[in-house]
Amino acid sequence: MKFKVIIFFAFVFMSLTEMVLHESVRNITAMSLGYHSRSYSYYFAQLFFQNEEMLSSSDSILNSYKRGLNLEKNGYRDTDQWKEFVNQDRKDHAIIALSGKIFTLLITLIGLIILFIRREKRRLKFEIIDWLGVFMALFIMKDSLVSLVYGVGAEMSCSYIACDYAAFARYFNLSVYGTEWVIFLLGVLISSYVIFGILQRKIIMPFIISGFLGGITGIILWSIYLGPALAKCL
After folding, report:
1. In this predicted model, what pLDDT tens digit does every residue of 91-123 receive, in sequence order?
2. pLDDT at residue 139 tops 60
């Protein structure tokens, strides 16, 4: 029972830590690109960023075309100025999303390296550094879960502004669905290796059950409390 309780709270802590660090990295990237306005979406459980200067420019573009162009014939979305604005915004949001993905993969990779380096000593005694490697390697589980949600969803209707996941795939000319499934499968492979290849058999089921409950608890706490609070503090 003690092991289950420890793993439960460890997963709560890991989930919250991963999401805070992930969103903080995205926020730093967004600010470096001029996106200083942020808001929190309860629906997507993530931060969204806006570039006030670009929004002001887009309003100016739209107003000028409304006053001087035949919208029925030309359409402001087909103009060079509007395309330039849209492409820049799409690129920026793709970079913001990419920074979060790179951060998650980097932490996961460091965890796998720790487990690889410790493979001989771990057979003699499973120490705190080994548990650290396990939890760091499992950082990818959150992204994998998000990708699963998008992958099995009805229809990916997110635009480049509304959804960073779609923005990332579309900007780099990747399949939106295909990209999500690749991330999901990568997370499954890494998680399966860590859980079934590293942990002792007798603790696998307690680890999975407590980890699942702890992870869900962490997601709920993030979505309702910590996420909105972080959006105000950053």
Report:
1. 888 888 889 889 999 999 999 999 999 988 887
2. yes
Residue owning tokens 């989930």: 15
How far is the CA of 66 from the CAs of 29, 81, 83, 174, 184, in angstroms?
34, 14, 16, 34, 44
Q: Where are the alpha helices (DSSP H) in the chain?
A: 2-32, 52-68, 80-117, 119-124, 128-137, 140-151, 164-171, 176-197, 201-221, 227-233
**Look-up of token digits 């950053």:** 234
User: What is the C-alpha to C-alpha distance for residues 18 and 130, in angstroms, rounded to an integer?
Assistant: 18
Structure confidence at residue 137 (pLDDT): 94
Q: Are 156 and 177 in contact (CB under 8 A)?
A: yes
pLDDT at 108: 95
Dihedral class, residue 34 (left if φ above 0, else alpha if ψ from -120 to 50, else beta): left
Q: Which residues pair with 22 in a beta bridge?
A: none
What is the amino acid identity at position 221?
L
The interaxial angle of helices 140-151 and 2-32, nearest 10 deg, is 80
Separation CA 215–CA 6 (nearest Å): 13
161 CB burial (10 A radius; 0-12, 13-18, 19+):
middle
Q: What is the mean pLDDT of residues 155-169?
A: 54
